[in-house]
Amino acid sequence: MNTKRNDIRNIAIIAHVDHGKTTLVDGMLKQSGIFRQNQKVEERIMDSNEIERERGITILAKNTAVTYNGIKINIIDTPGHADFGGEVERVLKMVDGVLLLVDAFEGPMPQTRFVLKKALALDLPAIVVINKIDRPDARVNQVLDEILELFIDLGANDSQIEFPVIYASARDGYAKLDLNDTSNDLKPLFEAIINYVPAPVGDPDAPVQVLITTLDYDEYVGRIAIGRVFRGTIIVGQEYAVCKKDGSIEKVKISNLFEFNGLKREPAESATVGDIIAVTGIEDIEIGETIADAEKPEPVPYVNIDEPTLSMIF
Ligand code: GDP
Fold first, then answer.
1. Ligand 1 surroundings by CB, under 6 angstroms
2. pTM of the predicted protein model
3. Residue 158: in which H helix or E strand, if any?
4. What is the catalytic activity of this protein (predicted)?
């Protein structure tokens, strides 16, 4: 029987480079730290920054989780460019809603159009966040009109077009529902996510399906497969089957399971419907493959990664 995970929301952020995604996620991490476990989160952000600085790459993790009022919000980064058509689609399959983050001066950019189009086509609800409203050259109302036009142009359905709008300054750490309000925190953004993005639904007793959508690598544990539990409950130490892309089945034992907390992965004994997890120990697993029940292995359908997409962007 299907159950609803009211304690989880899974969202993806769609944003053009420099519109403030990293700053916003950092702000959300800091605030969920203030609401929950202040010091630890601060340390985590710094740890991560240091590591990322060493590697010379963006500080935004592909997966981040923040907790607000006891609800875990998994935040998934989307590939900024559309060179990986299939990847965008799979990443969007992990979530139940998206944040479209747009600079209050620059407005929506063509590069995010493709990802938004995919999200709308997948029937995902979108929350629009107009960021950098503190900019002296901000042109908030015009930008909002441009976003509305974009939604219409991309064929958004009636409910998608009635998107909630959050006006934010990620840099200054505040968000509000109305430009004339005063706000000194990101609470309105958290509330919009909780209220507008549906909680994951699925059958925790069905045969397991975990769609792998991202790969990571760690020098100690090797390949890390990240994905969402679509149905069933996956348990450490048990045997499962990997439905490979070539149609073959490979038996595997899950030795380590992790959930996301802040920017860190934390060990878990089991995970169920709606959870976003990382699994180690399956060396040859690929993006688009499914970890499934050992007796009844069934893959989650996925789109072909070679799908031509560039011509569809502009
Ligand atoms: P990302 O590429 O989308 O991750 O963007 P960043 O978070 O790295 O932000 C890009 C630049 O915009 C940085 O210099 C930020 O300090 C700045 N920025 C981010 N949010 C705001 C904001 O709300 N107001 C202003 N004025 N600048 C911001």
1. 15, 17-23, 60, 131-132, 134-135, 169-171
2. 0.88
3. helix 158-161
4. GTP + H2O = GDP + phosphate + H(+)
